[in-house]
Amino acid sequence: xxxxxxxxxxxxxxxIVLLVAGAGYRYYSVKKxxxxxxxxxxxxxxxxxxxxxxxxxxxxxxxxxxxxxxxxFDVGGKVKWVNAAKTQTVEEGTVLVELDQTRQELAYLSxxxxxxxxxxxxxxTVLKEKELALQVAKADLEAATLSAxxxxxxxxxxxxxxxxxxxxxxxxxxxxxxxxxxNVSVDEIDVRYVDIEQSALVSIDAYPEVxxxxxxxxxxxxxxxxxxxxVFPVKIEIVDPDPRxxxxxxxxxxxVIQKAxxxxxxxxxxxxxxQGTSSVNVVKGDDYETIQVITGLTDGFSVEIVEGLNEGDxxxxxxxxxxxxLQGGSSQGRQAPLGSGFVGGVRR
Length: 348
Fold this sequence. Notes:
Elements: H1 3-33, E1 45-47, E2 49-71, E3 77-82, E4 89-90, E5 95-99, H2 102-121, H3 124-143, E6 145-147, E7 152-157, E8 164-165, E9 172-187, E10 199-204, E11 207-219, E12 224-226, E13 229-238, E14 250-267, E15 271-274, E16 277-284, E17 287-298, E18 302-307, E19 314-316, H4 320-326
Antiparallel strand pairs: 1-19, 2-9, 2-14, 3-5, 3-8, 4-7, 5-6, 7-9, 9-13, 10-11, 10-14, 11-13, 12-13, 14-18, 15-16, 16-17, 17-18
Helix pairs in contact: 2-3
């Protein structure tokens, strides 16, 4: 065998060795970077935190003023002058409109004269009659002047000078906006959970980005009917009113009927209900451990954990059995897939 033949064989052998070595290196490199068969996707893991949880009764309604009054004259007559305009703020007692008082003043003077004459020789019943007539005439004279019964804002005005107005016809609308309320209607099933002084979150349709604090100040005792649904009126005072909020705007109130403050709170779907017990899957490295817990308040989205978890724990918010199956593992001995049961009630 010549030296040239030996050289060629060594070259072939060396090439095969290099190919095998390269393939082995690539195999072990890929194998090393693969995740463990039982690894849990990180996006399905949530860290347990503390927070506040609320349960609500929600309803819609209309913004109202502390006092809302249509002003009228008790007597008819011709308008002499108007002292207030729409959107103007007036103080209690301010004269707003005055009628021509000629007829009322004449009637008053006549009744006063007759009463004074009756004092001398009239029978007691006649004297009483004249006294009552004087009182009526005086009231009619005073009624020709319309004054503000409280400090407020002139919301509407439909009266002008020199026009004739009739007794009882609304001519102005006065609003006392020192306090604002949202009047809502609560279903008869939910009203049992509502109490005076409960807090509420108020949102106005015109300004959805604004949330205002409120409190329940009145619960009606007589129901109202909305079709076949029975509801009760509930008045909620807006504690921190926004200047943009106006009487007549529509809004929604979420009345807080229960709350858990600084509590351990986890997503609703992280809890599994099975055979009357609640459990959570706590992540342990690349695996998980099923731990029984005691649940508390829920709003249908989150749930309070009274016992079983600590702040900072990592939990699984998916289906662990499905992870095992997809990765060729076994789910035997584990809890039923998450989502097989429900905890608590619904967000109202």
